[in-house]
């Protein structure tokens, strides 16, 4: 009795069995017609809704499974390094560091970003961006390999199948959204609808939701198919029922995708190494350095682009250091007269590019903290630039960053005075911190109050 | 539900839902997480973000993929399906097109922020892309030349022995 009631209430109108015949619901009063139309759509080979429309001999569950496993590893790496990048900003330290304050539990994993190894952010963010770039052809190939399923009829075989297809929109839309916003952002092409940080961060979580479902539902089959090397008694719904004479083998298609990834790797990896920069022929921050000499290395934002004028950084410039000892003002000469320390540290940008170690020289942050009234165990510091507008002209550094002896208020780089583009008269440099936290044109350091 | 109904209710569930209960649980978790993040994603320019999110999937599936598939078909038709030449055009064209697609803002000099922010000229990218494209097709042509020579040489070698 209960069975029948359920049956009637929830019966799905277009339930088919695997061979395309009308299934259990086909015997209803008006059932004959709709399935007949569907049947015609499914068998007219000029329409993408018919499996016979798709003629490539490359498509098949094994081809898709291999690409899927590459993406499982690759996208997991890109997702995790992306989460690490968010943590590297220390967003829970101060509101000024957090571009997604409404994150709620999505920030559950945040931790105090360490200062060592000093190349940490250079590595994680290089992997994030270069990894993403290299995965583009794999993603495109994967989407190509499953395109017949987009048009397959009926659009949903059951409630479960319908829900799964909605989750696929999260997966595909999310992946493309993340790749597109990421690729546009590193080219400084800010055409997306909003600030990059919230779009890319929340978009990543929407993508990840779809990714988890897809992996959960498909990984067992992918592994089974690749282990056994064949489909045991299963139909290969991705393989063409009437393939064209092959123009490329499956191995050839893999080689083509791999060649795409290799070409992208070769033309982009140089953006993370000064010595290889000239090989990064098509990628932003590739090809060449903006200048020559000690200050010739890569610049995130030039002084002119954020309207820093000589008046801002000239004779009248002072550094104000404040803390329990009050407000202390220093000229550049006074800072140069303090104990000077050196640190060899890179600039590593959220956009994935980085420089080799530069030899910075200046006053240690912990020495400035001592002047401000924190002789031992200094707290964090709130850093302000003379820059009047734009993001990250103010930033907060955590106590572990202030305490690291390599963290400097740098006055010189590679043996020369800082150039205006690299933050003259003074800039922050902290080991392993994202580039934007290494504030340039610093005018105020407030210890203890973030 | 009583225990005795276990297998039967499972069958009812499967009939109603079309998949096992684990499927539903996994998707419920997915939609909950996607909803939590999605609400935050859509804050601000809700319509614009929705268009970008759904639009990127639609543009890929209904524009980009059909366009490159049609181009591939056209190449096959022009070269003749059995000629074996397709890949000598297909592979360099794919690689060149991939680079253009990914770096279009820089190659087209549309990314106007790039030069003032970085102090680097984006003018090099168009030339580099054209040179890479030229190199890819040149390698392909060289490869085809070598292959043609080999086939010919093999045919020459084969001929006398065939007349014996």
List the helices and strands and how they pair.
The complex is a heterodimer of chains A (450) and B (164).
Chain A: H1 2-10, H2 33-43, H3 61-88, H4 120-145, H5 147-151, H6 159-186, H7 196-228, H8 250-266, H9 310-313, E1 319-323, E2 326-330, H10 332-336, E3 341-345, E4 358-364, H11 365-372, E5 381-385, E6 394-397, H12 399-403, E7 408-413, E8 416-417, E9 427-429, E10 442-447
Chain B: H1 6-17, H2 21-41, H3 46-79, H4 86-102, H5 104-107, H6 114-118, H7 124-163
Helix pairs in contact in B: 4-7
Judged by helices, strands and strand pairing, the structural class of chain B is mainly alpha
Runs of chain A in which pLDDT lies below 50 for 5 or more consecutive residues are 1-31
For the secondary structure, the number of strands of chain B is 0
Number of helices of chain B: 7
Oligomer: heterodimer
Give the integer mean of the pLDDT values of chain B. Answer: 89
Largest sheet of chain A: 5 strands, mixed
**Radius of gyration of chain A, Cα only, in angstroms?**
29 Å
**What spatial form of chain B do the alpha-carbon principal axes imply?**
flat
Query: For the report, how would you describe the main beta sheet of chain B?
Result: none
**What percent strand of chain A?**
5-15%
Characterize the overall form of chain A.
Answer: elongated
Number of domains of chain B: 3
In total, the number of domains of chain A comes to 3
**Please, how many helices of chain A?**
12
Distance between the termini of chain A: 67 Å
Beta-strand portion of chain B reads under 5%
What's the β-strand tally of chain A?
10
Contiguous runs where pLDDT drops below 50 for at least 5 residues of chain B: none
Helix and strand content put the structural class of chain A at alpha+beta
């Amino acid at each position: 009795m209960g069975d029948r009631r359920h049956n009637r209430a929830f019966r799905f109108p277009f339930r088919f069995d695997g061979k395309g015949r009308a299934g259990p619901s086909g015997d209803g009063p008006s059932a004959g017609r709709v399935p007949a139309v569907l049947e015609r759509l499914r068998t007219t080979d000029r329409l993408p809704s018919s499996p016979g429309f798709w003629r490539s001999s490359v498509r098949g569950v094994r081809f898709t499974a291999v690409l899927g496993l590459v993406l499982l590893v690759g996208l997991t790496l890109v997702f995790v390094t992306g989460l690490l990048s968010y943590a590297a900003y220390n967003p829970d330290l101060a509101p000024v560091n957090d571009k997604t304050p409404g994150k709620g539990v999505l920030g559950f994993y945040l931790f105090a970003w360490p200062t060592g190894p000093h190349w940490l952010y250079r590595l994680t963010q290089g992997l994030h961006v270069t990894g993403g770039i290299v995965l583009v052809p794999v993603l495109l190939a994967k989407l190509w390999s499953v395109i017949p399923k987009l048009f397959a009829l009926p659009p949903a075989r059951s409630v479960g199948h319908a829900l799964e297809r909605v989750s696929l929109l999260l997966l595909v839309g999310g992946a493309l959204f993340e790749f597109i916003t990421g690729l546009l952002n590193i080219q400084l092409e800010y055409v997306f609808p909003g600030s990059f940080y919230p779009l890319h961060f929340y978009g990543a979580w929407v993508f990840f939701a779809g990714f988890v479902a897809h992996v959960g539902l498909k990984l067992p089959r992918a592994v089974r198919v690749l282990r056994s090397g064949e489909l045991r008694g299963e139909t290969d719904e991705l393989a063409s029922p009437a393939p064209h004479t092959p123009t490329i083998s499956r191995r050839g298609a893999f080689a083509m995708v791999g060649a795409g990834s290799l070409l992208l790797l070769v033309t982009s990896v140089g953006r993370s190494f000064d010595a290889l920069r000239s090989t990064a022929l098509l990628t932003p921050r590739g090809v060449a350095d903006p200048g020559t000499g000690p200050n010739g290395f890569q610049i995130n934002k030039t002084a002119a682009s954020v309207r820093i004028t000589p008046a801002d950084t000239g004779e009248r410039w002072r550094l104000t250091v404040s803390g329990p000892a009050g407000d202390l003002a220093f000229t550049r000469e006074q800072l140069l007269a303090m104990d000077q320390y050196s640190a060899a540290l890179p600039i590593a940008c959220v956009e994935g590019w980085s420089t080799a170690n530069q030899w910075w020289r200046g006053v240690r942050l912990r020495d400035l903290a001592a002047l401000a009234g924190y002789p031992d165990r200094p707290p964090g510091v709130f850093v302000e630039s003379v820059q009047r507008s734009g993001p990250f002209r103010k930033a907060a550094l955590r106590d572990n960053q202030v305490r690291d002896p390599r963290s400097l208020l740098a006055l010189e780089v590679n043996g020369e005075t800082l150039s205006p583009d690299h933050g003259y008269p003074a800039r922050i440099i902290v080991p392993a911190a994202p580039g934007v936290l290494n504030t340039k044109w610093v005018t105020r350091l407030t210890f203890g109050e973030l | 539900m009583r225990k005795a109904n276990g297998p039967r209710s499972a069958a009812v569930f499967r009939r109603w839902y079309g998949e096992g209960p684990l499927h539903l649980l996994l998707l419920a978790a997915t939609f909950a997480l996607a909803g939590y993040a999605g609400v935050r994603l859509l804050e601000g320019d809700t319509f614009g973000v929705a268009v970008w999110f759904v639009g990127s999937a639609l543009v890929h599936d209904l524009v980009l993929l059909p366009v490159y598939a049609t181009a591939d078909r056209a190449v096959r038709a022009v070269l003749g399906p059995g000629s074996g030449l397709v890949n000598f055009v297909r592979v360099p064209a794919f690689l060149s097109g991939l680079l253009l697609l990914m770096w279009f803002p820089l190659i087209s000099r549309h990314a106007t922020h790039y030069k003032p922010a970085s102090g680097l000229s984006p003018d090099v990218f168009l030339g580099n892309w054209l040179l890479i494209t030229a190199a890819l097709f040149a390698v392909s042509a060289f490869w085809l030349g070598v292959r043609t020579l080999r086939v010919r040489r093999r045919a020459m070698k084969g001929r006398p022995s065939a007349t014996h």
